Amino acid sequence: MSLCHNEFAGPDGGDGGNGGHVLFQATLNVNSLSHLSSIIKGEDGEKGFPKNCFGRNGNPMIVEVPYGTTFKDENNKLVADLSSAEASVFIAARGGSGGKGNRFFATSENQSPEVAEYGAEGETITYVVEISTMAHIGLVGFPNAGKSTLLQAISRARPKVASYPFTTLKPHVGMVLYDDLEQISVADVPGLIEDAHKNRGLGISFLKHIERCVCLLFVIDLSSPDPIFQLQTLISELKHYNPSLIERPSIVLANKMDLKEAREKYVDFVKEVGKEVVVVPISAKHGLNLKELLARIRTFYDQETDKLKKKHAESKTKQTELDLLTWTR
Q: 22-27 and 250-255: which strand pairing?
C-alpha cells in the first residue's frame, strides 16, 4: 500500500508474474540427447510491485531435441512423439500462475486489505525421454550376410564378427564421418530369418529395431545358394510386420563379391531383381566399392533431411498464418 504521501490511499500491490513453461522442440540442429540434464526448470515469474505494477512472466525454457524423440510417463505410457514437422513441440510442464497482489482483494467492505496471495506451484513431472529413431541407416540381412563386417568397414564401431549365425544379438550403431564433418548413424541389427514376424529367431525384437531406422540397406550374401530367396524373405517379413517399412528408401547390397561364387551369380541376380531396384556390388571384407556405397548413403541422408526441412518450413508458415488470423480477429 502507498501511504507515504496519502494516508487514505488504497491498495496498489500488483500481481506476480506466471512461471515459465518447459517445452521441448524437435529440430535439425541437434542429433542426440546428450545435452539434456536430469532436471529442467522454467524461469520463475517476477513478484508484483507497488503502484499496481505487475511482475514479469517467466520466460519459457525451450529445449531442442532431435526429430524422433519420444516422451513416456512413469508408467511407460507414450505421452508425446516429436517425429514430424506437424508435431514438433511438446509442452512438458506448465509454469504456475502468479499470485494476486492486495489490490485484487479490495472490496466495498474492505477497501484496504492487508493480504496477498502466493503464486501457484508449477507442474513437476517425470518423463522417460528416448530417441525412437535409432539410426539414419539400418543394415537388414540374414545371419552371416556380412552386416557387422560392413559396419566395421565404414565406421569406428566394433561389433563382434564370427563365422557362425546370430553373432549379433543386440544392435550396434556406428557413426560415418564425412569430409564436411556431417555424421550419419548406421545400425547393425540382429540377423533376420524366415517367419521372424511370427517371432522366430530374434523375431519381433529384431523388427522393432528396423522400424527405428529411416533408410534400409538390404545386405545379401551373394555367395549363398539362393540370394534371391534371401531378398524376397527380407521384404516379405517387413511387409508382414509393417507394410510402411517397404516404402522407405532402400538399396540392395550384393555382398561378398570377392568370392568367385558371388561374381558368377551377380548378373543373374541383378536381372531377377529388376531395373527399378538399386543394386550395389560390394565386398565388406576387402573394402570393394565402399566409396560408392557411402556416396549413396549420403544422398539418401540429404534427401530425407531436405524433406524434413521443407515440412518444417511449411508447418512454421501455417502456424504464422494461423497466428495472424487469430490476431486480426
A: unpaired
